[in-house]
Amino acid sequence: MSLTISWGLAGGGASVEFPALEPATRSWSMGIYPITLQAAWGIQPLAFRHGLAAAGHTLSLGFELLTATEAALIRTHYHGQRGALLPFGLPEAVWRGHTSPTGPVPGTTQWRYAQEPGESHRSAGLVDVSVELVSVL
Questions:
Q1: Whole-structure pTM value
Q2: Which among 19, 42, 52, 104 is placed 20 to 30 Å from 128, CA to CA?
Q3: Cα 131 to Cα 137: distance, rounded to the nearest angstrom
């Protein structure tokens, strides 16, 4: 007897880069270094380092006045990544206008959705979209 589990991912579940849209706003956290603090008797807490790189960076992107077609690119990407299941890269357009071409993290950083994108529909068919991402090691 054999058991086969299928996630139902089209194209073998390949990661697809985020749409090349320039956000109107972006904010991020620098992540947390993997350390633990242990209380010690009569002295300051001892710190134990578990790695050299920060992890868990968060990135909030705000897109304003997108056309319905542009908003659909983000929606389609979210569904194609199966929400937070599949990690993906970010194109340079996401960091356009920032002082560093790759932002506060290496350009090779992979991301996942922290939650589903939010949409706010305006008149004339324009859409504002908010996206929350978290980095993946």
A1: 0.77
A2: 104
A3: 20
